[in-house]
Amino acid sequence: xxxxxxxxxxxxxxxxxxxxxxxxxxxxxxxxxxxxxxxxxxxxxxxxxxxxxxxxxxxxxxxxxxxxxxxxxxxxxxxxxxxxxxxxxxxxxxxxxxxxxxxxxxxxxxxxxxxxxxxxxxxxxxxxxxxxxxxxxxxxxxxxxxxxxxxxxxxxxxxxxxxxxxxxxxxxxxxxxxxxxxxxxxxxxxxxxxxxxxxxxxxxxxxxxxxxxxxxxxxxxxxxxxxxxxxxxxxxxxxxxxxx
Length: 244
Prior knowledge:
Layout: H1 2-22, E1 32-42, E2 46-47, E3 51-55, E4 58-63, E5 67-71, E6 74-84, E7 89-96, E8 101-107, E9 114-121, E10 124-130, E11 138-156, H2 159-166, E12 171-176, E13 179-191, E14 196-204, E15 208-216, E16 222-230, E17 234-243
Antiparallel strand pairs: 1-6, 1-17, 2-16, 3-4, 3-16, 5-8, 6-7, 7-10, 8-9, 9-11, 10-11, 11-13, 12-15, 13-14, 14-17, 15-16
Protein backbone atom coordinates (compact mmCIF):
# COMPACT_ATOMS: atom_id res chain seq x y z
CA UNK A 1 0.00 0.00 0.00
CA UNK A 2 2.87 2.35 0.80
CA UNK A 3 4.40 1.67 -2.64
CA UNK A 4 1.05 2.36 -4.31
CA UNK A 5 0.65 5.54 -2.29
CA UNK A 6 4.10 6.83 -3.38
CA UNK A 7 3.43 5.87 -6.97
CA UNK A 8 0.08 7.66 -6.89
CA UNK A 9 1.79 10.69 -5.40
CA UNK A 10 4.36 10.76 -8.20
CA UNK A 11 1.65 10.43 -10.86
CA UNK A 12 -0.42 13.18 -9.22
CA UNK A 13 2.59 15.49 -9.03
CA UNK A 14 3.45 14.79 -12.67
CA UNK A 15 -0.08 15.50 -13.78
CA UNK A 16 -0.05 18.75 -11.82
CA UNK A 17 3.19 19.82 -13.49
CA UNK A 18 1.81 18.92 -16.92
CA UNK A 19 -1.35 20.91 -16.21
CA UNK A 20 0.67 23.89 -15.04
CA UNK A 21 2.75 23.73 -18.21
CA UNK A 22 -0.44 23.85 -20.23
CA UNK A 23 -1.59 27.05 -18.52
CA UNK A 24 -0.71 30.06 -20.66
CA UNK A 25 1.17 32.89 -18.98
CA UNK A 26 1.71 34.99 -22.11
CA UNK A 27 -0.95 37.63 -21.37
CA UNK A 28 -0.43 38.65 -17.74
CA UNK A 29 0.46 41.94 -16.05
CA UNK A 30 4.03 43.01 -16.81
CA UNK A 31 4.29 40.96 -20.00
CA UNK A 32 5.83 42.41 -23.15
CA UNK A 33 4.86 40.86 -26.49
CA UNK A 34 6.37 41.52 -29.89
CA UNK A 35 4.70 40.14 -33.00
CA UNK A 36 5.22 40.02 -36.73
CA UNK A 37 2.94 38.93 -39.54
CA UNK A 38 0.88 39.62 -42.65
CA UNK A 39 -0.88 42.98 -42.75
CA UNK A 40 -3.60 43.55 -45.37
CA UNK A 41 -5.22 46.96 -45.91
CA UNK A 42 -8.50 47.18 -47.84
CA UNK A 43 -9.44 50.86 -48.45
CA UNK A 44 -13.08 51.97 -48.37
CA UNK A 45 -12.61 54.89 -50.77
CA UNK A 46 -14.55 58.10 -51.23
CA UNK A 47 -13.17 60.99 -53.28
CA UNK A 48 -14.05 64.57 -54.15
CA UNK A 49 -13.64 65.64 -57.80
CA UNK A 50 -10.33 67.04 -58.99
CA UNK A 51 -10.61 70.84 -58.66
CA UNK A 52 -8.31 73.39 -60.33
CA UNK A 53 -7.59 76.19 -57.84
CA UNK A 54 -5.04 78.32 -59.67
CA UNK A 55 -3.40 78.83 -63.07
CA UNK A 56 -0.06 80.64 -62.91
CA UNK A 57 -1.06 81.86 -59.47
CA UNK A 58 -4.40 83.28 -60.59
CA UNK A 59 -7.25 81.91 -58.45
CA UNK A 60 -9.88 79.84 -60.23
CA UNK A 61 -12.42 77.29 -59.09
CA UNK A 62 -12.84 74.76 -61.87
CA UNK A 63 -14.40 71.48 -60.71
CA UNK A 64 -13.78 68.55 -63.04
CA UNK A 65 -17.11 66.84 -62.47
CA UNK A 66 -17.04 63.05 -62.59
CA UNK A 67 -13.38 62.68 -61.70
CA UNK A 68 -12.18 60.79 -58.64
CA UNK A 69 -9.42 58.72 -57.08
CA UNK A 70 -9.13 55.51 -55.07
CA UNK A 71 -6.37 53.74 -53.15
CA UNK A 72 -5.85 50.09 -54.05
CA UNK A 73 -5.58 47.16 -51.65
CA UNK A 74 -2.11 46.49 -50.34
CA UNK A 75 -0.18 43.86 -48.37
CA UNK A 76 2.90 44.36 -46.25
CA UNK A 77 4.83 43.08 -43.23
CA UNK A 78 3.34 44.20 -39.92
CA UNK A 79 5.01 44.64 -36.52
CA UNK A 80 3.61 45.24 -33.05
CA UNK A 81 4.85 45.79 -29.52
CA UNK A 82 2.44 45.38 -26.60
CA UNK A 83 2.86 45.91 -22.86
CA UNK A 84 0.33 44.48 -20.37
CA UNK A 85 -0.19 46.94 -17.50
CA UNK A 86 -2.70 44.60 -15.90
CA UNK A 87 -4.00 41.15 -16.80
CA UNK A 88 -6.79 42.81 -18.78
CA UNK A 89 -5.37 46.11 -20.06
CA UNK A 90 -2.53 46.54 -22.54
CA UNK A 91 -1.14 49.21 -24.85
CA UNK A 92 -0.02 48.17 -28.31
CA UNK A 93 2.00 49.99 -30.98
CA UNK A 94 1.32 48.83 -34.55
CA UNK A 95 3.34 49.60 -37.67
CA UNK A 96 3.75 48.22 -41.16
CA UNK A 97 6.67 48.23 -43.54
CA UNK A 98 6.02 51.23 -45.87
CA UNK A 99 5.34 49.64 -49.25
CA UNK A 100 3.99 51.76 -52.09
CA UNK A 101 0.25 52.38 -52.00
CA UNK A 102 -1.09 52.79 -55.54
CA UNK A 103 -3.82 55.26 -56.48
CA UNK A 104 -6.09 54.78 -59.48
CA UNK A 105 -8.50 57.02 -61.30
CA UNK A 106 -12.25 56.59 -60.89
CA UNK A 107 -15.19 57.97 -62.82
CA UNK A 108 -13.98 59.75 -65.96
CA UNK A 109 -10.38 58.98 -64.96
CA UNK A 110 -10.88 55.21 -64.63
CA UNK A 111 -9.56 54.54 -68.15
CA UNK A 112 -6.08 55.65 -67.04
CA UNK A 113 -5.79 52.92 -64.39
CA UNK A 114 -3.06 53.61 -61.82
CA UNK A 115 -2.18 57.30 -61.75
CA UNK A 116 0.43 57.44 -59.02
CA UNK A 117 1.76 56.02 -55.79
CA UNK A 118 3.05 56.96 -52.35
CA UNK A 119 4.48 55.25 -49.29
CA UNK A 120 2.30 55.59 -46.16
CA UNK A 121 3.98 55.69 -42.76
CA UNK A 122 1.02 55.00 -40.48
CA UNK A 123 1.74 53.92 -36.88
CA UNK A 124 -1.18 53.15 -34.55
CA UNK A 125 -1.29 53.24 -30.75
CA UNK A 126 -4.10 51.18 -29.18
CA UNK A 127 -5.43 50.85 -25.66
CA UNK A 128 -6.82 47.31 -25.48
CA UNK A 129 -9.14 45.50 -23.08
CA UNK A 130 -8.76 41.69 -22.97
CA UNK A 131 -11.62 39.39 -22.03
CA UNK A 132 -11.49 36.13 -20.02
CA UNK A 133 -9.04 35.10 -17.33
CA UNK A 134 -5.34 35.78 -17.90
CA UNK A 135 -4.61 32.05 -17.73
CA UNK A 136 -6.98 31.31 -20.60
CA UNK A 137 -5.19 30.47 -23.83
CA UNK A 138 -7.79 32.10 -26.08
CA UNK A 139 -8.38 35.77 -25.27
CA UNK A 140 -10.40 38.15 -27.45
CA UNK A 141 -10.01 41.90 -27.04
CA UNK A 142 -11.23 45.29 -28.24
CA UNK A 143 -9.07 48.33 -28.75
CA UNK A 144 -9.38 52.09 -29.23
CA UNK A 145 -6.54 54.37 -30.20
CA UNK A 146 -5.03 56.94 -32.50
CA UNK A 147 -3.30 56.82 -35.89
CA UNK A 148 -0.96 59.23 -37.63
CA UNK A 149 -0.56 58.79 -41.38
CA UNK A 150 2.16 60.50 -43.41
CA UNK A 151 2.74 59.93 -47.13
CA UNK A 152 6.29 60.02 -48.46
CA UNK A 153 7.78 59.66 -51.94
CA UNK A 154 4.47 60.56 -53.62
CA UNK A 155 4.69 60.63 -57.38
CA UNK A 156 2.60 60.73 -60.54
CA UNK A 157 3.54 57.66 -62.58
CA UNK A 158 1.06 57.71 -65.48
CA UNK A 159 2.41 59.66 -68.46
CA UNK A 160 -0.85 59.39 -70.41
CA UNK A 161 -2.68 61.08 -67.53
CA UNK A 162 -0.08 63.87 -67.37
CA UNK A 163 -0.29 64.43 -71.12
CA UNK A 164 -4.08 64.60 -71.00
CA UNK A 165 -3.96 67.29 -68.31
CA UNK A 166 -0.79 69.24 -69.16
CA UNK A 167 -0.39 68.56 -72.85
CA UNK A 168 2.61 67.02 -74.67
CA UNK A 169 5.87 67.76 -72.90
CA UNK A 170 4.14 68.60 -69.62
CA UNK A 171 5.04 67.29 -66.15
CA UNK A 172 3.30 66.84 -62.82
CA UNK A 173 4.11 66.35 -59.14
CA UNK A 174 1.83 65.45 -56.25
CA UNK A 175 1.81 66.03 -52.51
CA UNK A 176 -0.53 64.29 -50.02
CA UNK A 177 -1.28 65.81 -46.62
CA UNK A 178 -0.71 63.98 -43.34
CA UNK A 179 -3.55 63.32 -40.91
CA UNK A 180 -4.48 62.17 -37.39
CA UNK A 181 -7.34 59.69 -37.09
CA UNK A 182 -9.00 57.53 -34.44
CA UNK A 183 -8.40 53.79 -34.69
CA UNK A 184 -10.79 50.98 -33.75
CA UNK A 185 -9.72 47.37 -33.35
CA UNK A 186 -10.98 43.93 -32.35
CA UNK A 187 -9.11 40.65 -32.29
CA UNK A 188 -7.95 37.64 -30.35
CA UNK A 189 -4.73 35.97 -29.26
CA UNK A 190 -4.13 32.28 -28.65
CA UNK A 191 -1.23 31.33 -26.37
CA UNK A 192 0.63 28.26 -27.65
CA UNK A 193 2.89 28.13 -24.60
CA UNK A 194 4.50 30.44 -22.05
CA UNK A 195 6.24 32.51 -24.76
CA UNK A 196 4.64 31.94 -28.17
CA UNK A 197 1.18 32.95 -29.39
CA UNK A 198 -0.75 33.55 -32.59
CA UNK A 199 -3.16 36.41 -33.18
CA UNK A 200 -5.68 37.89 -35.57
CA UNK A 201 -7.06 41.42 -35.51
CA UNK A 202 -9.24 43.64 -37.66
CA UNK A 203 -8.90 47.43 -37.40
CA UNK A 204 -10.66 50.39 -38.97
CA UNK A 205 -8.91 53.72 -39.44
CA UNK A 206 -10.81 56.65 -41.09
CA UNK A 207 -7.76 58.13 -42.85
CA UNK A 208 -8.31 61.20 -45.02
CA UNK A 209 -5.80 63.05 -47.19
CA UNK A 210 -5.84 65.97 -49.62
CA UNK A 211 -3.70 65.47 -52.70
CA UNK A 212 -2.33 68.56 -54.42
CA UNK A 213 -1.44 68.00 -58.08
CA UNK A 214 0.92 70.61 -59.50
CA UNK A 215 1.28 70.43 -63.26
CA UNK A 216 3.45 72.37 -65.66
CA UNK A 217 2.81 72.59 -69.39
CA UNK A 218 5.59 72.59 -71.97
CA UNK A 219 5.08 76.34 -72.25
CA UNK A 220 5.61 76.87 -68.50
CA UNK A 221 1.99 77.32 -67.35
CA UNK A 222 1.61 76.07 -63.78
CA UNK A 223 -1.74 74.53 -62.78
CA UNK A 224 -2.57 73.61 -59.17
CA UNK A 225 -5.38 71.13 -58.50
CA UNK A 226 -6.58 69.26 -55.40
CA UNK A 227 -8.78 66.32 -54.51
CA UNK A 228 -9.65 64.98 -51.06
CA UNK A 229 -9.64 61.22 -50.62
CA UNK A 230 -11.14 59.35 -47.68
CA UNK A 231 -9.18 56.08 -47.71
CA UNK A 232 -10.68 54.52 -44.53
CA UNK A 233 -8.86 51.17 -44.64
CA UNK A 234 -10.03 47.99 -42.95
CA UNK A 235 -6.77 46.42 -41.76
CA UNK A 236 -6.39 42.68 -41.15
CA UNK A 237 -3.32 41.51 -39.23
CA UNK A 238 -2.43 37.81 -38.88
CA UNK A 239 0.63 37.36 -36.68
CA UNK A 240 2.92 35.29 -34.49
CA UNK A 241 3.90 36.77 -31.12
CA UNK A 242 6.72 36.23 -28.61
CA UNK A 243 6.50 37.12 -24.91
CA UNK A 244 9.48 38.30 -22.88
